[in-house]
Structures are given as C-alpha cells and as structure tokens.
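Worked example

This section walks through a single chain of length 84. The input is the sequence exactly as stored; nothing has been trimmed or padded.
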Amino acid sequence: MQTPCIKVCLMDEQSGLCRGCGRMIDEIARWASMSDEERDAVMQALAGRMDRLGDRRIRGDASSGSDDAPEITMGPKDGHRVLR
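Given that input, the structure is written out below as tokens.
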C-alpha cells in the first residue's frame, strides 16, 4: 500500500496538517482502511498542502544530522519518530 508517511509525525497547529507528510490527523488514522480511490485523492492533494506549509514542513529525513534538526525519539511500537 502506498503511503506518504516519512515516519516523522508532527502536526502543524496552524493548518492541522502533518509537517512530515501533509495529511490531516483523521486521514492518518484512517489510511489503512481507506479505499484506493480515497488514498489517491489524498495523495493528489499533498503537493499543494506541503507547499502551503512552506518553511514549517519537514523535508526528507529529519535525522540527517544538521545542527538545526529537532530532537527525535522513536515510538515504542511502530518505529515512527516523534519530534520534540
């Protein structure tokens, strides 16, 4: 199953979008149970959403070692990184 998840979950308070993948929290929660058509519709919307996030978006792998990278901890079950 295709997913835009980059395993860095941080919700943007201003827009309600994940700064890592551009999905809304309800889309993240329902992703596995969505139909292919629903997932395709969300995937089509992501580029525009990420553009709207601008500098608040997380680009690629936040653990790349840059000095301004946020602290990252691994989730206990799914391996998602949670920014602090």
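What to look for: The helical segments are 25-30, 36-53.
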